[in-house]
Specification:
Largest sheet: 8 strands, antiparallel
Strand content: 35-45%
Distance between the termini: 14 Å
Radius of gyration: 15 Å
Order of helices and strands: EHEEEHEHEEEEEEEEH
Helix content: 10-25%
Shape: globular
Number of strands: 13
Length: about 190
């Protein structure tokens, strides 16, 4: 099966409850994204689920290709709605984190080599906060994501993001195994 480069999943979440959980952890220490050549400004991460045994924040912020065991970070216990959202995904979850792009920042065009559901691993974006000044380009075409929506994006393809607005753009980002349940959601 060849899947499209973007699919809005037939799932929706309460934007107010997402923002409430974000507010409970927003003041914690976030980690700058570790691939600094891919962005200008401030792009940072708060891990909510990570590879088992990872103790360094950078190692908690992504999904290593060879990782097979993942655990919830302690901070996830503070966010009951995030836990409820994650429980709707009937597929093995890998790394899960909040990703924030501050006003005036940009993520340069790049691609993530292994992120395509066709190849077994998917990344789902659930916007929590955004603004009209945010532009997310995938294969050169904008993807207009709204708070509470859930989007599969084939990020093995070229993508870039700018935040020219006056408010943070924060997404709940879920890396997961592309099971039959997920591919059925993508085809719905």
């Amino acid at each position: 099966m060849t899947l499209p480069d973007r699919v809005r999943l037939p799932l929706s979440f309460d934007p107010a409850r997402l923002r409430a959980d974000l507010a409970t952890v927003e003041a914690l220490s976030w980690t700058d994204h570790f691939v600094k050549q891919n962005y200008e400004g401030r792009w940072d991460v708060l891990p909510l689920r990570h590879q088992s045994g990872a103790t360094h924040p950078i190692m908690q912020a992504y999904t290593p290709p060879d990782a097979t065991e993942f655990v919830d970070a302690a901070v996830l216990a503070r966010t009951p709605y995030f836990r409820e959202v994650l429980a709707t995904f009937d597929c093995p979850l890998k790394a899960v984190r909040l990703m924030r792009l501050t006003p005036g920042s940009r993520i340069k065009e790049h691609h993530d080599h292994d992120l395509a559901a066709d190849w077994g691993e998917a990344r789902i974006h659930i916007p929590i906060t955004t603004n009209p000044g945010v532009t997310f380009l995938l294969n050169g075409t904008p993807v207009a994501m709204q708070p509470g929506e859930a989007w599969y994006l084939r990020l093995a393809d070229p993508h870039a993001v700018t935040n020219e607005g006056d408010e943070d753009r924060v997404h709940l980002v879920v890396d997961c195994q592309a099971t039959t349940w997920l591919t059925d959601q993508l085809a719905a």
